[in-house]
Amino acid sequence: MDLYIQKLSKAFNQKPIFNNLSFEIRAGSRFAITGSNGSGKSTLLKILSGGMLPTSGVITYYLEGKKIPEESLFRQVHFVAPYNSVIEELSLKELFHLHKSLGLLKGYPIFQDWFSNLHYPFSPDQQIKSFSSGMKQRVKLGLTLLDDRPLVLLDEPTSNLDEQGKTWFFNLLGQLREFQTLVIASNDALEISYCTARINLDGVVSVVD
């Protein structure tokens, strides 16, 4: 997916978070959003996902050369953040079948196929609300990175993951398809190193290829 960001600004209670951002994220990019705490990384990612409106400016999305209407953008995006949650009253198996019913996880005909790629000894019938924060993060990332939506947005994706979980995560990143566009909001050196382009929200905004 291609994203064209034009003169994007966001303010809360008339306090500017960022102003007049203009840049492009091309299909298949591995793109990082960096900046100090409070610079607007998470806010920008939420706006890119369509889950938050900018104060001003326009984002245009294209998939294989065709403009995506705003009302159907949600069908093309996965967004994972530590503050986002899944339906925790469901078990892992029930969550899988819910996602399948929504037309997701098309590459996994049965639960066990997807479950084996989580590389963790979950209890499939246990309610997710009983999982630790790291386990929940692994589930969210597994639902996202093992799917094929064209835009993947990750906010500090390795937060709450142990070292084994981080290794698993970076292995999954390497399996993303070439057409999938990845945007990571982070200041973590390993997460940023995976990306080949970057926008820094501190001070003068710049895009580095």
TrEMBL record:
<dbReference type="InterPro" id="IPR017871">
    <property type="entry name" value="ABC_transporter-like_CS"/>
</dbReference>
<keyword id="KW-0547">Nucleotide-binding</keyword>
<dbReference type="GO" id="GO:0016887">
    <property type="term" value="F:ATP hydrolysis activity"/>
</dbReference>
<dbReference type="InterPro" id="IPR003593">
    <property type="entry name" value="AAA+_ATPase"/>
</dbReference>
<dbReference type="Pfam" id="PF00005">
    <property type="entry name" value="ABC_tran"/>
</dbReference>
<feature type="domain" description="ABC transporter">
    <location>
        <begin position="3"/>
        <end position="208"/>
    </location>
</feature>
<dbReference type="InterPro" id="IPR051782">
    <property type="entry name" value="ABC_Transporter_VariousFunc"/>
</dbReference>
<keyword id="KW-0813">Transport</keyword>
<dbReference type="GO" id="GO:0005524">
    <property type="term" value="F:ATP binding"/>
</dbReference>
<dbReference type="InterPro" id="IPR003439">
    <property type="entry name" value="ABC_transporter-like_ATP-bd"/>
</dbReference>
<keyword id="KW-0067">ATP-binding</keyword>
<protein>
    <submittedName>
        <fullName>ATP-binding cassette domain-containing protein</fullName>
    </submittedName>
</protein>
<dbReference type="InterPro" id="IPR027417">
    <property type="entry name" value="P-loop_NTPase"/>
</dbReference>
